[in-house]
Amino acid sequence: MKQAMIIINPSSGKELALEYLRKVEDILHTEAGYDVVVNETTKELDATNFCIDACKQEFDLVVSIGGDGTLHETINGLLDQKHRPKLGIIPLGTVNDFARAMHIPLDPEEAIHTLTSTRRRHVDMARINDQLFANVVAAGSLADALSSVSSEEKSKLGAFAYFKEGAKELLSSSKSPLVITHDSGTWEGDAPIFIAALTNSVGGFENLAPDAEVDDGLLHCFIVHDLNFFNTLTAGVSLLFGNLKGHKDVEYFTATQVTVTSTEPVKTNVDGEAGPELPIKLHILPSHVEVIVPEEADPAEQADPAEE
Ligand SMILES: Nc1ncnc2c1ncn2[C@@H]1O[C@H](COP(=O)(O)OP(=O)(O)OP(=O)(O)O)[C@@H](O)[C@H]1O
């Protein structure tokens, strides 16, 4: 029988996580024909360690139930593994960037039904130093501010808490000296933020990187180098309308490898959580993980005949 592991953060999803768990277990077992093992997280890195076990025991499927933090920890269990199970996602966080990018319904009940879908996408992941990320890395003082947005604030304000916190930080006008080396050159200068995105959804803004496809084998990179960009508040408009990359104060490039260094201590934010300080080295891992997506998500994708 096929083996599935559910990795669930019981503290996510406004106390309803365990209720959804029963439904996920049921659908995987009765409709998708899996033997199901359930692992509840109690602390940081539990999800990574459970996922490492699933790889080593050659599970067919891992389902992450929780927010972007739980998903980030889960995918980190795939790092350097020979066998990587398929991934199912039930989004219970406040932002759920990766689920948005994969067109997985943000309503948990609907997301649960996608677990019976026969459609898969082989999506890119990327490495940052000794960890993986699925969505975005940001470096600079603004990135540090994003890490300090509390879950409480995110719940209250949704994705806009990210922007509000960012705007507050930008008023203090802090820039960091950055050296950014990529496939086709080097950029050197002072900037409040550098962003490398794998998907089109960053901080709940689905238009930040409108050209980013989850399987295009590219890091979509933005260097915001002029604070006037934010002071005139055009950033919000640009973000919402998806033309950030066309703005005169923003440098945009795509790359497969990027190194970012600084002469000062500079913090990063990785998939919405505090990440390592600079220097960072990023490189893309094309089509690294097979994700279950809704039947209607991308008609170009082929159904997996083994599941039919
Ligand atoms: N049982 C638990 N109780 C509290 N925290 C936990 C538990 N299990 C894991 N965690 C930690 O909680 C972090 C955040 O979890 P997760 O992203 O699932 O929820 P969230 O904070 O509600 O989501 P979002 O950040 O999108 O609002 C995880 O990275 C993990 O380290």
TrEMBL record:
Keyword Transferase part of the UniProt annotation: yes
SMART domains, alphabetized: DAGKc
Top-level lineage group: Bacteria
Gene Ontology molecular function: kinase activity
Cofactor: Mg(2+)
InterPro entries the record matches: ATP-NAD_kinase_N (IPR017438), Diacylglycerol/lipid_kinase (IPR005218), Diacylglycerol_kinase_cat_dom (IPR001206), Lipid_Phosphate_FormReg (IPR050187), NAD/diacylglycerol_kinase_sf (IPR016064), YegS/DAGK_C (IPR045540)
Keywords: ATP-binding, Kinase, Lipid biosynthesis, Lipid metabolism, Magnesium, Metal-binding, Nucleotide-binding, Phospholipid biosynthesis, Phospholipid metabolism, Transferase
Record's signal peptide: none
Positions of the DAGKc domain: 1-132
SUPFAM superfamilies in the record: NAD kinase/diacylglycerol kinase-like
Family of the protein in this entry: Belongs to the diacylglycerol/lipid kinase family.
NCBIfam families xrefs: YegS/Rv2252/BmrU family lipid kinase
Protein name (record): Diacylglycerol kinase
